Amino acid sequence: MKKSRSGVIVLITFLLVIVAAVIAIGLGSVTIAVPEIIQTLFSSASSTVNDTIIWNIRLPRVLLAMIIGANIAISGALLQAVMGNPLADPGLTGVTSGAAVCVLIIMLAAPEYTQFIPIAAFVGGLIAATIVYSLAWRRNGISPITIILSGVAVNALCGGGIGYLSIMYSDRLPAAVQWLNGSLAAKGNNALWMVFPYAVVGWILSIFVIRKANVIRMGDQVASNLGENVTKIRILLSILAVFLAAISVAAIGMIGFVGLVVPHMARLLVGSNYKYLLPMSMALGALVLLLADTGGRTLFAPLEIPAGILMAVIGGPYFLYLMRRSAF
What global pTM score does this model have? Predict the structure, then answer.
């Protein structure tokens, strides 16, 4: 009964994502009615101005927000399983900032190699995650306080690197300002098609690691008794989590707290079984970032607030609440 209930909740959430996407496409400086949006999306004959707005501007941005939100949420859920820590998240554990440093090196210092940005982001995120994991690991596991302190240290180090690059290449910085704030503004089909193939690969791999995530969340001793190689599982899940977070950073910059807030919301709705938690995190992540981006570009018009800033405003207080509730 509980399993069927969880499945229904996941399905309803995916339907809500679709509804929110259609509404988001219609909102903006030019309001487009839902029937016209549906007609445009399912009609091959497109020639009006609204058709151009939908296909070339709003649809790519909406899809990109959904994909990035899903990626970061899945990444956060996997990291929380790996570290046995409900406060683990790509941003708090340094993965995001590590990826950002490597991306900025290419964007500012070597813009002729922009085709390598996804790879650079992955390498940077993996290095940061390895450092944090090494600093936080103890024989009796990883405590919440050590993972947070390690993440703070790595984030500070990466923040220094970002600051140095910003000063050294200040003449080229304006092109990277929106990216640094996690903005989807002016992100079109190029950004969408850069991230989409990687995202699909990450989602498919996530399906195959659900059992491993369920095993490791029960604890090292239980996993070992079941004949599992705990270290190998941690490495596998960590690489996948970093991969999903890094390609997201490569596409739109640093988005914080999605990987922290969304898995908690998903657990409240469907429990801790990763068979439901991962797809629920995926759907909720897509919905949360889509709402943040849509709100940022419509609520304060003509001013546009980057989704990364809105998520920081929302996620910061929620993180403090979790810190207050957790016992260290």
Answer: 0.93
